[in-house]
Amino acid sequence: MRGSVSKMTLVAADLEDPTLEEARHNHEQTQDALNAVLKHRGITTQSRAVYVHESVEAAHHERSAVASRILGRLKDRGLHGIRTFRIMLHNMDLNDDGKVMGRTFEGALAHMGVRLKVVEYEQLIALFGSPAQQEDDMALDYGHFLMCGSSNWSTQRQEVVKEAYDCLRTMCPGGVLTISAIQMEFKFQALTGEHVPHLVEHQSAQEFLAQWNASVIGADGLVSWTDFLDYYLDVSLWFEHDATFCRFVCKSWGIDMDDWLAKKVFRQFATGDDEDSIGMKDFLLMLHEIDPTITEAEAVAWYEAIDEDDSGEVSLDEFLQSKVLKVKRLFDQFDVDNTRTVTGDEMPEILRSLNDAITEEEAKALYQYSDMDGNEEISFNEFLENNLLKMLQIFDEFAQDRHRSFNEAQMNAMLRKLDPYLDDFDIHQIYKAIDVDGGGTISFIEFVESHVLRAKMLFDRYDTDRSRTLSQFKFRELMFDMDETLTTSQMEAIYTLVADHNTGKVHLGGFLNPNIVKLKLLFDKHDNDGSRYLESSEFNRMLKELFKSTPERDIDVLHSELCPPGSEQGITFTQYIQRFKEIQRHHDQQQLKKRRLAREKARSKGLIFRQAE
């Protein structure tokens, strides 16, 4: 795409640690959050750490260094080391004032496996101690100690934790989060031995739930935002980088990290009353913010690719399902030479980055589907205009099937998901248009190569009243949209092939079977000189691609029937369309005769004939 793309955070890979300018804000935000948690636990302390920078007193630097060093040693105990230590201090704080005896503090550290040297203890008391009622000991302000060692609660960390909290609330009656929901929804595989030393998989649930037993949740089991913050504020200290913390939180609750970031971008530009929908003006503003060099054509392609229902607004669900921001970022990464395109070698890598279940053959089929002009390069605009976002959603449906193929009933269910207004006749015609070999099942590659999705979306663009029919005038507009160079005779041939001769209208089913879009694309592909005429050899190659599953020798026989030997005559586009039903009939009769002969041969040998799938 381009080298000057905005560094707006679009996908997980874009997440970066806060800048130095943001460090002060994060420090103050951490102090506020920790004070809120302590207050929630009934701890009355006014302690607050000063943001450490060059111009502050040396004592503040020293306090920060000592607290960070000790908390760092507690981090060696795992993700919950600091939290366990803090809970111990709360339990030993008899006055609930944020202070414990110095030796008590030292004992708690020793219990956690952190033993202080005499000089370290004396330094700790000098920095955080105050005279106690017991003359032989000093009280230690552990609240101040924790404040001095905590400063990484960034806006990104707070937002991802808030997203997790809000997601959990939506799963609960009345939007009120309960501890039982936390127990049920936590993905225990997120907590591993990397986070807690010597943790085995079957102990993950016990380790996680034990932390909530130390919370101050009431007998009703309700979990407030501060309760949720209480846990993650401690956990946050274990993670050095924002990206790894955010990834852990998302994985813990089954949140797609890219979706969370996309939602943030979307709602930043949703200026209307409904934050889950955005109009065209705001959507285009968002695109220009994402990429200031975007062209008008690209911006419109984005909008049309996502606004599938032509409502004039893009919903949050449409935006998230499209994965368009992730696709955009991947294009930017692979377009190292800033040509605004990716090559045939890079395209499969992008597709597999979006879904690693895509095979090499499936990725190749998608690439060929989108390379309409045959220049072996795909622009982001072409990716959108060729509906590859929708194709990837359809692939997810195929990938759920063990055989990665659909029968007519499964295809029926999938097509109704795409368009609930399709009737049984239209669905049957679509199925026939894809299952050209009559095998009874359809693979994802067959679906892609059928160009049915492309044809249907083109038809829908002109079927404004959703009647599933087009008048002759509307149909001519559609065809000129597809190819403005069509002649009157070519247009008439196409119309005669697909129209209902009783009504004079073109039905969706008639448009898709025979699939005029696929027929024209195939002809254009083999019409190298653009003359709208195929030589005999070119026609032969086109037939082999049209009937891909038919053996080449059978295609040669079919070709000889249509173009008798000794005749070098080819075929024009008009003749091809006019004779298509004849071509289809010849092919079907040929295959039927072949199956009949195979069945008779099997019967003569006492065998049962089974057609290969």
Task: Please provide a written account of the structure.
By secondary structure, this protein is mainly alpha-helical. The protein folds into 3 domains: 18-240, no CATH class; 261-399, Recoverin, domain 1; 405-586, EF-hand (Recoverin, domain 1), CATH 1.10.238. Helices cover 58% and strands 6% of the residues. The chain has 32 helices and 13 strands. The strands form 6 sheets. Strands 1-3-2 form a 3-stranded antiparallel beta sheet. It has a two-stranded antiparallel ribbon with strand order 4-5. Strand 2 (129-131) and strand 3 form a beta hairpin. The longest helix has 25 residues, at 580-604. The two termini are 43 Å apart. Mean pLDDT is 87; it is low at 1-6.
Could you give a short account of the major beta sheet? 3 strands, antiparallel
Overall SS class = mainly alpha
Distance between the termini: 43 Å
Work out the radius of gyration.
33 Å
Low-confidence stretches: 1-6
Give the CA-based shape. Answer: elongated
Count of individual beta strands? 13
The number of domains: 3
Strand order of the largest sheet: 1-3-2
The helical percent reads 55-70%
- The total count of helices amounts to 32
Please tell me the overall pLDDT.
87
What attributes characterize this protein structure?
13 strands, single chain, two-stranded antiparallel sheet, mainly alpha, Recoverin, domain 1, 32 helices, 613 residues, disordered N terminus, 3-stranded antiparallel beta sheet
Quick structural gist:
This protein has 613 residues and is mainly alpha-helical. Helix content is 58%, strand content 6%.
